[in-house]
Amino acid sequence: MRKNRCLKTLIATLVPLFCLAGQLVFAEELLLKTPADYEGPFYPVTRQEDIDNDLVHVKGQVGVARGDILNLSGIVVNTRGEAQENVIIEIWQTDPQGRYKHPGDSTPDARDPNFQYWGAAITGPDGTYYFKTIVPGAYEPRPAHIHFKVMKAGKVILTSQIYFKESFRESKRFSLTPQTELQTAELKKAEKGEFQAYFRIVI
Ligand SMILES: [Fe+2]
């Protein structure tokens, strides 16, 4: 009889504890999604032959793009932090003079024939991606940025922009906001005078 009462007391104590543990698991903090940002007017309109993840070499050209080389890597995860495989990331950006390769960009002078301006990468099983590109040039009045689109199963699920902490430090007109902070990477000096940046995309 006494044994039964002890057992009941034990169950009465443990059940709420299990429930609480379950709630804690569900209350696990989810990652904030990478905010959408406007596409801008210079999304490529002309299909180019070379749209790989190496933007500093263009098929058929022997030279290397002008500017500071940027090794841009990162990962695509969902809000639970799980790596997302087979996600396509497209980037398009300016050259060091802040010029897009787009008929609507009237910034003068010829474009760099050795810079690809637009590229794409696909995430591997670990969700990671990589681009070899250059540090984009800023154009007034915006801080330097790289535009990107994320595509999954043939659909565009996010259009946004990557900013750089350094651009905000240098800018008198722009400062980091809670939104842009989620879109901002840090430019770091790497070997051979190149730069590197890491950017996580949460979808
Ligand atoms: Fe732009």
TrEMBL record:
Key words, A-Z = Dioxygenase, Oxidoreductase, Signal
The yes or no answer to whether the keyword Oxidoreductase is present is yes
Pfam short name (any one): Dioxygenase_C
Domain Intradiol ring-cleavage dioxygenases: residue ranges = 39-166
Top-level taxon = Bacteria
From the UniProt annotation, give the residues forming the signal peptide: 1-27
Q: Is Aminoacyl-tRNA synthetase set as a keyword in this record?
A: no
Q: Which GO terms describe its molecular function?
A: ferric iron binding; oxidoreductase activity, acting on single donors with incorporation of molecular oxygen, incorporation of two atoms of oxygen
The entry's family comment says:
Belongs to the intradiol ring-cleavage dioxygenase family.
Query: By what name is this protein known?
Result: Intradiol ring-cleavage dioxygenases domain-containing protein
